[in-house]
Amino acid sequence: MDPQPLSVPRGGFLGLSGYHWLVIAAGWAGWGFDVFDAVLFNFVAPECIPALLHLPRGSYAAHQAAVFWTGAITSILLVSWALGGVVFGWIADRVGRKRALFATIAIYAVGTGLCALVTNIGQLIACRIIAALGIGGEWGIGAALVAEAVPEGRRVQAGVIMQTASPLGIVLAGAVNYQIAGVWLAADPQSSWRYVFLAGLVPVLLAFAVRLFLRESAHWTASHAGAQPSTPRELFAPGMRAATVSGVFAAVIAVLTWWACNAFIPLLGRTLAAEHAVRAGLMPAAATLLAAAWQAHASNAFNLGGLLGAFAAVPLATRLGRRPMLIAYFLFSAIAIFITFGLELAPQTRFAMLFVVGAGVYGIFGAFTFYLPELFPARLRATGAGFCYNIGRLLAAGGPLVIGLVSVMTGGSSAALMRVLFWVALVPLAAALVAPVAIVETRGRTLPA
Prior knowledge:
Layout: H1 18-53, H2 60-95, H3 97-114, H4 121-149, H5 155-163, H6 165-184, H7 189-198, H8 203-213, H9 218-224, H10 241-262, H11 265-280, H12 284-311, H13 313-319, H14 322-342, H15 347-361, H16 365-374, H17 381-396, H18 398-409, H19 414-422, H20 426-438
């Protein structure tokens, strides 16, 4: 059985024992590789989609297809992730955190690896759906496990530490894509993307480590003994409805804003590079290397900003409370998006501003790893956290598709992408106005048993 979660060891870094850190490490790695596998597609889409559609590389038709299918497949994946989050959250509350976490990591790793073998768009979508079911399920289970394992006074810090894996997972994805497609196999862009997808198999090793070293949550074990199995329907019972609405509201706004930005930031980096290469008259090999470098630069700026923004959740949550913290993130995100995509900026300056956008749009997710588990009792915790977080993905699914369609209709240029992204700022701005009545405050509460 796990160490008593409410006890605070006298020794150990941040008052956490060795086993506490092991649980945090498992949640951190599971979430980081979850995001790593999730976004590999966004990096390889400009090469993968034209290759599967047999379109000439670098042609206008290839670029338009990449823009459209990036949006369409991302929207399909968001629906699949939502389904996986709800289903595996329910499974975790029925059979335990440990077994469900193992299953989700193994599923998303194998599903991503299978993408290396596809020969058409239909097969790619099928493999991404398989991976998405595991990707969607992993977060809620990992967040519940970490929240239940650590001492009460360290829940916020542990949750933020877990969230830092997310931007680092995207940075890793960008680095892997750059090294494989931009350096090692730069001369073979028609197949280099397949090897990038193969890198998605690495989390299988983590799944086996989870099975070997983690113990079941004591919170779940105690709540499960002699209790009736939970059902998602209970999330909307009178005593739980306000908490569920609060979690759904915050997650929908955050997920919609994040995906609207992140799904197209790698494409924006490549598009800016392609336009610069044309103006500078670069040779094809140099243009390819520049595209990979600028794509990684844009993504890294956004994601490293998210890493810094996640740490801000600790002082904001402890000093202001959960509701003011979320309002602050919403307002900051809106202002950053308006400035970054609304002003005339040089490419390198715009990349720097993506760091600021990430601090708000991505940083807010540092709050969900502790806020959503705080809303629900143990017997419903993985179901509730997974439902709230992933229903946001379901309701946000139309965002990337709409942006892709609008971008194609307006030419697919960097200017067209930025015009559309500029208006995304209205989403967090409106949320900041509604949050005072929609968000449930959980500051000072103990984790519900």
